[in-house]
Amino acid sequence: MKKGRILTGDRPTGPLHLGHYVGSLANRVKLQDEYETFIIIADVQALTTNFEHPERLPEDVRQVAMDNLAVGLDPEKTTILVQSMVPEIAELTIVYSMLVTVNVLRHNPTIKTEAKQYGYKEVSYGFLGYPVSQAADITFCKANLVPVGVDQVPHLELTRKLVRRFNELYKPVLVEPEAMVGEIGRLIGLDGNAKMSKSLGNCIYLSDSAEEVAQKVSMAITDPARMRRNDLGHPNVCTVFTYHKAFNSTFVPELKKECETAGIGCVDCKKRLASALNGLLDPIRERRAKYEADPKLLDEILSAGTARAREEGRKTMADVREAMHLDYF
Length: 329
Ligand code: TRP
Fold this sequence. Notes:
Blueprint (H helix, E strand, L loop, with lengths): L3 E7 L7 H14 L3 E7 L1 H8 L6 H14 L7 E5 L4 H11 L4 H5 L2 H9 L7 H4 L1 H10 L5 E4 L4 H17 L8 E4 L28 H9 L20 H9 L4 H9 L5 H27 L2 H29 L6
Parallel strand pairs: 1-2, 2-3, 4-5
The protein binds tryptophan.
């Protein structure tokens, strides 16, 4: 017996990185045996910012699918689906759009941050409304748990409000989901920026080679007060130390002491981080290679997952139509 159903997913705007890993992917893998798991590749949501480049989607969708499989999601157990090919999600989005005001959407903190990041002076209807569509992503299969990074929490709050509103107004047929935020809900960038993010260009991708990882880590910001090898370090203000805490926790007490007493220099400390990260990424690279070598297998997984998701979507939309008296004949 499963404990319930998970739905979570990603926007295919590029390969996934360590921030995605600690925020959500690690939990997906951990929970796939306990929960029936659905992973959505949100290509329509990607279009809310990348609408000028739909030609990138086929490659980006496959890369994100491979990222999910490479971290250890088992296609025998989990359903991986492509958002645009489950039209029931679009139908449900329209229903939800009546139940939220434009003003509420404009105050969503994640939307505000992203609009600023993308330099939007004005936002499209689709961009402003993507959290509504995300509510449909989550609820079309009646998921009750959503592993996500902390920036997604406002979207989960909206989802819960929409479900409650629907259930009160019409008929209680929808399930109110809960967010599950990863141990590290937001990973700082190696450049010291508050967030690892593709648009900030400070990412370590799950698909990076060992050399790329070592190179990126060697450029990371450390304790600014530690200029020379013999200066004593302050791990608590050091980006590299934050990464040790996230990815190399066994050695944290030792590294803290070594840094504070100038026993270890930043160069060596970074080498140790790169090696810990590569230890995490090596098995991921290996699994990825299997799917890279067999594009047909990947497409089969995606089309089977999408078909399975559609079944759930049809059932939920039948409930929704009945609840709203839209089942005329
Ligand atoms: N907004 C999420 C992100 O940017 C991606 C996403 C789309 C999602 N639909 C979802 C996450 C449903 C959780 C549940 O990463």
